[in-house]
Amino acid sequence: MPDLLDLEAPDGPAGRMMHVSAAVQHQPGAPTSVEDVLLEPPRANEVLVRVAAAGVCHSDLHLADGHLGAGRFPIVLGHEGAGVVEAVGAGVDHVAPGDHVAFCFVPGCLACRSCRAGRFNLCETAAAHSLTGTLLDGTSRLHLSDGEALRHFLLVSCFAERCVVPAAAAVAIPPELSLWEASLLGCGVVTGVGAVRNAARVAVGESVCVVGCGGIGLQIVAAARLVGAGTIIAVERDSAKLELALARGATHAVDPSQGDPAAAVLALSPGGVDHAFEAVGSPATIRLTWDVLRPGATGIIVGIAPIGTEVSLPALEFLSEKGLKGCYYGSANAAVELGMLARLVADGSFPVADVVSDFTDLAGIDEAFERLRRGQGARTVVVLDPELAGVP
Ligand SMILES: [Zn+2]
Ligand SMILES: [Zn+2]
Q1: Residues 78-123 pLDDT 10s
Q2: Phi and psi based region of residue 11 (left: phi greater than 0; alpha: psi -120 to 50; beta: remaining)
Q3: 104: CA distance to ligand 2 center in Å?
Q4: CA 207 / ligand 2 centre spacing (Å)
Q5: Ligand 2 centroid to 135 CA: how many Å?
Q6: How far does the centroid of ligand 2 lie from the alpha carbon of residue 119, in Å?
Q7: What is the distance, to the nearest Å, from the Cα of residue 162 to the centroid of all Cα atoms in its chain?
């Protein structure tokens, strides 16, 4: 455990340790604790951001519940958010203090094998540090008030008033875009739109089925509409989310509690759909995604399953050349996609505001987690600074 003397960042810019209010997850399954933590100033190639708003995603809950493995605590969660740059470390020239930014939680290192192959979302360097809860130099800028190191989550940790992130994780966005809307871009919007555009490459008129219409699934539905899909079938248990899916462009709604969902989808799209997306992360919904595919089609698995989850498939059906493919963070360069999508949202061509079901503050994260566990509400936005966030 480092003592406070170790915390003077030797290569950092002028600046002192900051006290910031943050939601700390001390143990898996425990309630989050809103407390004063210590944040170091940004070092070289890092950016200090004052957080305006942050979305609560199922991945935060998975980690909080211990579903992503042990050895990840204590940690400050939050990986989807937006705010204003307050300071930059040496070598940062793409943003400056005062710029509005949204977070990209896989900042491609450009040097690893995945990055060199153009698969920036699979950056091995970012993945390794995400697992250890450090920034890209292998250390943490976050500490509990007694000096004990705190882990970062996905290089972001935006359930806090301020955060220090790798330079490439701070993506400039148009200042006219409200920061509470921008807070949704970095996970839900990039992931959902990327699944449709980059992983599935849905073409005009093709049929689509979306299994699970939470924060990600609703973006998949809207993206399918954006690219001109024909039939768009939304499968979701929660009636409010199903209504929202219809409002965002789904042509048909299937409630799996009202009968066999696979039969219902196949009745709407005889022979199966051209593209099926899974945005839940459970064996039953992955199997459903497989069962609704037409021969030759590929299901895109976006949902994150708890560690140890296994799926079984009728192997004979590989004869029909069906497939399943994983999709992580939009299957492209998320930072580039994020900037492009921010402009679409800012000019009104891709509205995202309707997916927000609840606003809360740091103290309300546990209730937001509880809603996610119950499958209620599409997205909660944690507002750190209402004025900065531009909350209506
Ligand atoms: Zn997420
Ligand atoms: Zn890389």
Answers
A1: 999 999 999 999 999 999 999 999 999 999 999 999 999 999 999 9
A2: alpha
A3: 14
A4: 34
A5: 14
A6: 8
A7: 19
Token pair recorded at residue 262: 């696979």
Which DSSP category does 187 fall into?
A: I
Task: Give the C-alpha separation, 164 to 107, whole Å.
Answer: 13
Nearest ligand to the CA of 122 is: 2
Pairing of strands 273-278, 100-103: unpaired
Residue-wise pLDDT tens digits, 121-175: 999 999 999 999 999 999 999 999 999 999 999 999 999 999 999 999 999 999 9
Residue 108 CA, ligand 2 centroid: distance in Å:
5
Residues whose CB falls within 8 Å of the CB of residue 164, separated by 6 or more in sequence, listed in order: 39, 40, 41, 42, 46, 47, 48, 49, 135, 141, 142
Question: Strand pairing of 252-254 and 232-235?
Answer: parallel
Task: Tell how far the Cα of 214 is from the centroid of ligand 2, in angstroms.
Answer: 30
CA of 332 to the centre of ligand 2 (A): 12
263 Cβ partners below 8 Å, 6+ apart?
Answer: none
Task: Compute, in angstroms, the gap from residue 105 CA to the centroid of ligand 1.
Answer: 9
303 Cα to the center of ligand 1, angstroms: 10
For residue 295, CA distances in Å to 216, 267, 285, 312, 313 come to 26, 16, 19, 18, 15
Which residues lie below 8 Å from residue 392, measured CB to CB, with a gap of 6+?
none
User: Cα–Cα distance between 341 and 166 in angstroms, integer?
Assistant: 21
The DSSP bridge partners found for residue 224 are none
Q: Determine the Cα–Cα distance for residues 163 and 82; give it in Å rounded to an integer.
A: 11
Q: How far is the CA of 171 from the centre of ligand 2 (A)?
A: 17
> CB–CB of 121/154 below 8 Å?
no
Q: 305 CB contacts (<8 Å, ≥6 apart)? A: 281, 282, 283, 286
Taking residues 25-48, report their average pLDDT: 97
